[in-house]
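Session log. Operator J.P. requested a structure for one protein chain; no other inputs attached. Running the standard single-chain path with token output.
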Amino acid sequence: MIIKRRKYIFIALIGFLFFWGCEEFFRRKVGGFAGSYPFVEYWDIKATESEVIKAIVDLKKEKPNLQPPNQNEYFFPRKVEYDLESPELKENAMAYLTDSIPFPPMTKSNTKSDYWLFIDFYYADSKEIVHTWTRPDFDTTITTFAFVSLSNLNNRNDYRLINRDFWYLENKKQIWKFERTFVNEIKEKIEENRKAAHNPHRCR
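Structure written below.
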């Protein structure tokens, strides 16, 4: 009886290690988020992107230690570039690319912008820059806020992607730290800003 019980425990342990190993391999080699950033850890915040960005700027102003040293920008505006597939540019795309003719002035109809708005934070305790981005959902009342990576302030080669370059427990630890330090604070600031907007006399 004891031998059979040990056998079942052993089989269960082997099965757990197998499935856990597969999950770790999938997480670190394949990722779980489609598109250009498959390894990010992300949160869907129930707020418009403008509310999220305002909350982030307000937090950085209140807590300057959240802003990377020697970085003046609270966030980096979306990159805007010409859309060679637009009706205005498509016919002469090759001529524009080879400088045979100059590009026309940028307008909404002939340009496109990145999906992502990039924001850097800072861990003063470990001297690490925290790389993130925001992106509006199809429902514009929801904003995706993603934890992308960490880099060492004093060593640019020390660049680590979350969900890829950390083993299981350390990865969980980094996600918990990020959520506690930034996500929860941003959500609280959004609620605070909303209350202030509905009760302007409270700010006087």
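Operator note: The longest helix spans residues 168-198.
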